[in-house]
Amino acid sequence: RSYAESGGPETTYGALGVGMGPLFTPHDSYRSVRAAALEMLSCGVTTTHNWAHNIITPEHADAELQALRDVGIRHRFSYGYYWTLGQTEPTNLADVRRVHDEWTGPMTRVGLALRNDTTQGTASVSFGPLSVSPDLLAQEMAFARDHGIPLTMHIRNPGPAEYFIDRGYIGPDCLVVHGYHWDDDTSWRRLADAGARVSVSPYTAMILNSTLIPLGPMLDAGVPTGLSFDHMNESGGADMFRLMQATVVNESLRVGEPLPWRTAVRLATIDGARLLGIDDVTGSLTPGKRADLVVLDARRLTMAPVHDLAMTVACSAGPAAVTLVMVDGEVLVRDGALARYDQAGIADDLEALFREKTNQLRAGRS
């Protein structure tokens, strides 16, 4: 039986966040972020954007960053709120600046993960902690911009593009996640003119929003775009190959013609690096960039014979074909296995963490 059927927690993103999030210690955060980063590496992902929205204390922020550093994955850490933070309470901006100043380095970029605002028609209706007053949001954005800290915001709610542009929420320094309701060409041209950069999540669009991503209008307008898992309990894991396939299928369902395979590969590589502002460092095999490499075994029966390279990568490949992963010149996956960690041991630790928090939830209900 499932955990929910046996009296355990629901396993949806919101239920886990609300239920387990407040129970996490810094060490719990370290263990979970370490496992997620290792999962990504084992699947051939060399860079991650940690949209960190369970930062209860400064120690939680340091723990998550230390996990990313220990694993060796390239990363942006966007310092966020936490599940019990009230809508009138500000994010700990002093600690955001501390983390930015102390942790920024060759492998680490630090940003601010914003909440949305509570204005009628634009409030995020899914989770209360995601919304604050426009005035408070403006203060937090101004602070980040004054200190050169990049921004990111989830926008799944139905407000018009003009509202977010006019409020100053959207600009070259703020990475937008989602925005699928902006499905007309005019909105995307306005967003492009405003400098919007958008990370799209096919599984979130289909499962949570029951919609398709207006990818064609976004790309035609010139909006820089990349791919995201959003959260992996609904995307099914850190499989960027499957994410590319879903993106191609999304466009086929939307307009009756699939996205070109080469475009899907570009969205997963150099375009993702551009969204994070690190395309001068990674995202393509270019002399002078850092050595972030993924090697696939083309002798896998799922891939052979190789005729169209882009189609092979975006359609036929999968994590099982990943034989080597190198980040910044260091080999982190060799012969298909993690080079520095015991995968089974990490999985056991993650299972123990989940059961521990499940028991804490049960004890709290009794």
Describe this entry's structure for a reader:
The chain has 366 residues and is an alpha/beta fold. Helices cover 43% and strands 16% of the residues. The strands form three sheets. It has a seven-stranded parallel beta sheet. α6 links the parallel β6 (151-155) and β7 (174-178). It is globular, with a radius of gyration of 20 Å.
Unreliable residue runs:
none
- Overall spatial form: globular
Q: Summarize model confidence as the mean pLDDT.
A: 91
Q: Give the count of helical stretches.
A: 15
Measured by DSSP, the beta-strand proportion falls in: 15-25%
Would you report the number of β strands? 13
Q: Distance N terminus to C terminus?
A: 21 Å
What fraction, in percent, of the residue positions are helical? Answer: 40-55%
Strand order of the largest sheet: 1-2-3-6-7-8-9
Provide the structure class. Answer: alpha/beta
Largest sheet: 7 strands, parallel
* Rg: 20 Å
Order of helices and strands: HHEHEHEEEHEHEHEHHEHHHHEHEEEH
What topology does this entry show?
Elements: H1 13-20, H2 26-42, E1 47-52, H3 58-71, E2 74-79, H4 93-103, E3 108-114, E4 116-117, E5 131-132, H5 134-146, E6 151-155, H6 161-166, E7 174-178, H7 185-193, E8 197-200, H8 202-208, H9 215-221, E9 225-227, H10 232-235, H11 240-255, H12 261-268, H13 270-275, E10 293-296, H14 309-316, E11 322-327, E12 330-334, E13 337-338, H15 343-365
Parallel strand pairs: 1-2, 2-3, 3-6, 4-5, 6-7, 7-8, 8-9
Antiparallel strand pairs: 10-11, 11-12, 12-13
Helix pairs in contact: 2-3, 2-15, 11-12, 11-14, 12-14
